[in-house]
Write a structure and sequence with these properties.
about 300 residues; mainly alpha; 13 helices; about 75% helix; globular
Length: about 300
Amino acid sequence: MAGNVSLQYSRPPLNHSNRAPESRFVRWGLITIALGFLFLFLVIPLIAIFVKAFDKGSAVFFSAISHPDALSAIKLTLLVTLIVVPLNAVFGVAAAWVVTKFQFRGKSILITIIDLPFAISPVIAGLVFVLLFSSHGVFGPWLLDHNIKILFAVPGIVLATLLVTLPFVARELIPLMQAQGTADEEASLTLGASGWRTFLFVTLPNIKWGLLYGIILCSARAIGEFGAVSVVSGHIRGLTNTMPLHIEILYNEYQFSAAFAVASLMSFFAIITLVVKNFIEWKAKKSIISEEGSS
């Protein structure tokens, strides 16, 4: 539902008076190309989803999204998101803290590992858990002996979603905390504050907008994740189907109106995410301008 787009904390670019102004033709030409591309490949398909969802009337739409299987998929999607996002938030803050506040060997390797889920296919991420937790996997026999089910159950879906959304919070915080440096934390510790109080009253306020932005991106990806979840879920109706999987099943069964009804609900969640993201960007820029005005 969303990609990893860095929040713009940087101050407005300096005006270079000696730089030649862009041609009006070039400026409006590029703007037209960008808007036309977005309208053709993003806005029109999004509108088509909502039109198709209500194609057979509101009764069919509400029947589709209130079907027990659809409600189960919605609840499971929200449950997985509520579990995954806080865990990724804690990991993201810890990883960003370690990377930006300490100097140690292997730091570049750690950053590369954090970025790894961006590079590998979600399907491969799902297959990794199959190799680990299937009956013939590394931990499969032990899990069977203790009657613990990971694959084709909620824990497997949570683990798969956790893996593919792992970098979102950390990757938003690392450049932000690197830009801020360690001067504020060192001053707080010098004045006698404990490490925990320094984190709560110095570090956390400085990174709050980046943290919220990372959480928004992580939530959007968790709601829309398909590939990794498809491998580990088993596609069990009413039990392990998330919203994307439920849409795929409806579409394959030629229940197009129902499929687009659930898809429109997911699109609605994406629009809400976009609105919240823009609000956070606006608040972050306003905070920067306020800080510059008071300094």
